[in-house]
Each structure stands twice: as C-alpha cells, then as structure tokens.
Amino acid sequence: MRQRKIEIRNTIFEDSIQETASKCSPNVKVSKKKSHTSILSTGIQKFFLTSIIGLCTMGCGNSNSNSGIVSQGTFTENLTHNGEEREFIMYVPSSYNGAEELPLMLSFHGYGGTATDFMNWTDMRSLAEEENFILVYPQGSLLDGSPHWNSSLPSADNKSSADDFGFIEALIEDLSTTYHINSDRIYTSGYSNGAFFSYALACYRSDLIAAVASVSGTMTDDVISDCNPTHPASIISLHGTSDYVIPYEGAPGYSSVEEVMNYWIDFNNTSTEATRNSDADIEKTLYSNGENNTSIVHYRIHGGDHVWFDLNYEGASTGQLIWDFVSNYDVNGFIEDNQ
After folding, report:
1. Domains along the chain?
2. Best CA proximity match to 326, nearest among 182, 226, 224
3. How far apart are CA 296 and CA 212, in angstroms?
4. pTM of the complete model
C-alpha cells in the first residue's frame, strides 16, 4: 500500500478567499489582493462549509479499503508518481461510510495556480456534501517555475515533460483502494489550462472519464486532431465572449469554442438542431440525443472575461450547473438508460 502524508484542515477557520483570477494565465502576475468580480452579479456568493473533520474507523463492509481507516472533511494528501511527490486536496462528505459507491469529481486549476487557491475560489465542497460525491483538487507540477497541466502528448513541440495523464490515472487508482468510488462516474472539471487538461483526459484517458466540464478553456490544435476517445462523452462548456486570455474565437495553437463544440457534437453524433435559451447575459445552447443519449451544452457568457464565473443562472451557480449536468451520465452514457 502506498504511504501518504495527510494534513487535516479545519475549514471553519478559513476566513478569506485569495485572488485567483490572474493565476491561470502566464501573461498575468499573481496578486494577493482579494478580487473576484463577476460580470453577472453585484456580489459574490461565498459558500463556506463548516464541518468537524476527523478520522473514522470503517467496518469490513468497505472492501476497497486497505487500512480500514478513512478521513472525512477537507484534507491534503501526497502521492509519489514517477519519483515525484504530487499533492492533492480532497473533500469527503460527512455521510460517507464506505457502504455506497460515490461519484468522484476531479477539479483542475489553471496555469500558475494552486489547488488551495482554486478550491477557495470555486469552492464546491458544500455541493459535494449536499450531493454526496468525493471532490478532489489535484496540484499541477512546475513548468518554468509555474504550476501547470500538461495537456498534450510527448512531442518535439511540447515544452512540458510532466506525465500528468499518468499521475491522474495513478491518483484514481490510489483513491479507489481507500474509498468506495464508482469507477463509472468519474468526472473532470477545469478552469483555463485545467479545462484544456480536462478535455485531453477525455481524449487520451476516456476509459476513466464519464463527462467533462470546461470553464474558460478549449482544446489545443494537436489534441483536437489526435483526440481518440473510446466512448461518447457528455460535455458542458462555459466561456466568455470577452476572454482576453483564451479568446472565444480561438487563436494560433488552440481551437475556438465553436470548433471544440463541433468536434464533440460530431463525435457523439448528437442532433445538430440545438435548443437555445437566453437569460440576461447568458445564452445556453444544448445539443442532445447523441450516442448513448449523450449531450453537449454550452453557456455563452456575453461580455464574460477569463474567470470562473460567479453565475446565477436560473438559481444555479457555475458549480451547480456543472454537477447538475455531469451527474446525469456515466461512462456508458445517460444513467437512466443504463438502469
């Protein structure tokens, strides 16, 4: 069994959210000033989950646990992969007792970011508690001094040598030895560089991933040309039309939002007739009836810049929109069709 260092965090006393909007672009310096401005609301809804964090002894019913002991709440762990110690933060809901398989959500920060800052900015822990899923924020490794995710396969043009695909595969395997995880319901969400990596996982490790959420990110040209999923995957995308880092229309080296959506619409063989709804500055476009009843949904944020959006779309935040969508699917497609 792998040895893991565990740091327990008491989230009751975390009383601030650090600035993270700038951390996901290599062209923007990180600022410690607190600033989470939304184009859609006058204030930011902050979700703080207060929980008592401890260790509980599991019974013999959890056949996936090697040690019989698991943690609940928010804590940090380290996993050694390819000789390098990699860190991740996870949240396990208080209802977890090992008797039921839980879905797993992997959420990836942007370029230059940290798992801690990204967790505090996007905080989906209260959602994980309410909806009963395990939430993990992995930490990217350094590239020229900045944390990143390597979303491309090895090549002469790839500046990164990080084996992030292997790391995530090892992470899922490691978590599954301790927690009773539903291997058919593993989801990825990501912001900026983390969104690029989420798409890449759906291309190169699709056997592990049921559905993907992208916020302010697209796909690099090499990934979209080499993408070879083993099954249709439902996709939810949110992107601002005024994104100054990853332009909506694309740029040299990566595809536009429309090109990415068209790739998955074609691969999933969804209907080309879209259902469209608009709410203030948000336009929702849904392509449904794909193979295995998969769907593609895109939220076009008019005037939105390069952020994790502070939305209130029909009463739902960005995190809620993501979960409400991806949780309908497993690796076999729409869940109700598979029961």
Report:
1. 50-338 (3.40.50.1820)
2. 182
3. 10
4. 0.81
Residue 225: Cβ within 10 Å count: 10
Residue-wise pLDDT tens digits, 286-326: 999 999 999 999 999 999 999 999 999 999 999 999 999 99
Which of 159, 158, 164 lies closest to 140, judged by CA?
164
Contacts with 241 (C-beta within 8 Å, 6 or more apart), sequence order: 248, 300, 301, 302, 303, 304
Helix residue spans in 179-242 (DSSP H):
193-204, 221-226
Bridge partners of 220?
A: 254
Closest CA to 301 of 315, 290, 312, 288: 312
Average pLDDT (223-232) is 96
CA distance 249 to 237: 14
User: b/e map of 13-38 (b: 16 or more CB within 10 Å)?
Assistant: ebeebbebbbbbbeeeebeeeeebeb
